[in-house]
Amino acid sequence: MRLAVIADIHGNLEAFRAVLADIDGADIDQIISLGDNIGYGAESEAVMALIRERGIPSILGNHELVVKSPRFYRWFNPKVRKTLQSTFAGLSERTVADIRRMAPYRVAWGCRFVHGFPPKSVVLYLYQMSEKNICRAFARIDEARCFIGHTHDLALIRILDETLAHLPFSQGVCPLAPEGRYLINVGSVGQPRDGDNRAKYVIWDESESSIEVRYVPYDFEAAAAKILSAGYPEYFAARLR
User: Fold this and answer.
1) Of 22, 148, 168, 235, which sees the most CB atoms within 10 A?
2) Which residue in 177, 216, 213, 165 sits closest to 22, CA to CA?
3) pTM for the full model?
C-alpha cells in the first residue's frame, strides 16, 4: 500500500493540480486529505470539485468546520472572518453537502487521520501540546501512526516508552523503525509556512515502512494574483511567496 496524504490545500488550485500530477507519477494506491481544502485561496469551489472528481476522501478541517457550524467564525479575526464568509458564500450546494458529511477523524489502513490533534480534534495545534499531552493522546488510540495537518509545517515525532523524539523531516524518504509510534504532520499543499513555498505532501509506504516527503513546485504567482483579484487580503497572497 502506497498512500498519499495531503492537507491544507486552502483553495489553491494551482498547487493542488501540481501535487495531483506528482501523485499520478508516484505509483500511489490511494489519496486522503486531512481537511482545510477551502479558505484563504481564491478557488475553494474548484478545489472541492476536483476532490470530488478524483474520489479523494477528506476529513474535516477547521475551515470546513465553520461551514458546518457557523458559530466557529468567532475563532478567526474579523478581517479573516469577513473573507471566509465571502468564500463560503461561493460554495455550491453539492460542496456544502460534501462538507457536512465530513467526519472529524478517520481510521484506515492501520493509521489514524485527523486535521488538528489526536484522537479527533479539528482545532488544536500540535505546537500547543506538551510532550505529556502527546503521550496521553497516544495512550487513547490504538494506531501506531497518526497523520495530522493544521500547522502548515512538517513534523515527525516518535513516541517510545512515553519518551518523545522530534526527528528530522524534510524532502526525501524517512524509514520508520518497527518499534515506537509516530505522529506525522504532513505540511501544506496550498499554503506552506516553513520558509519553502513549494507544495508539500507525504507518501506512506506500508510495505517499506517509510514516509516520503515530496516538495512540488507550482505557479504560486498565479495563485497569488487570483487571491488579489478576488479582493482578499494581500497577506493571503504574500504567504504563498
Assistant:
1) 148
2) 216
3) 0.96
